[in-house]
Amino acid sequence: MLKFKKIDSDDLEFIYKALSNPELTRFYGVHFNSIEETQEQMVWYSSLIDKRKGIWWKAQDKSTGNWIGAAGFNDWDHQRKSAEIGCWVLPQFWGKGFASEIMKTVISFGFDEMGLIAINGFIDTNNQSIKKVLKKFNFEHLNSEPEKDSKTGLQIISDHYQLKKT
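Given the sequence above, the corresponding structure tokens read:
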């Protein structure tokens, strides 16, 4: 069982620990090399709420008390009732079903509390682990497009998946 807490400024060290880890950020469009750089991510989390563009939470394993990852929505389009979902789990917790449990909770929140009718996911085509999670929840692959990786500047293929409310 997981517990969720809205990400706020007190979570700077946790976010830095995660988003400075090259193993975690390998397929993730954000990476920070210092706690100071991570401040921009904290501003981003706060601005999502202030501008009504989304919300992110960190996830805690209730049985151990460990904070294991984060997930949420951004690019919330109120008119189209859609948003982009994101999720990451610290590497030491990979392969234990946490990503699926996190996604289940966040998807439910998006449909039930935010009134979304479509949830979009944009992932690096090489990220096989998250593809398995998206397929588990019946996300449909819509297309693949080349784009520039924000960390390396190299061309990558971004796969667009979507889940529609049934």
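The domain at 2-118 is CATH 3.40.630.30 (Aminopeptidase). Try to locate this feature in the token string yourself.
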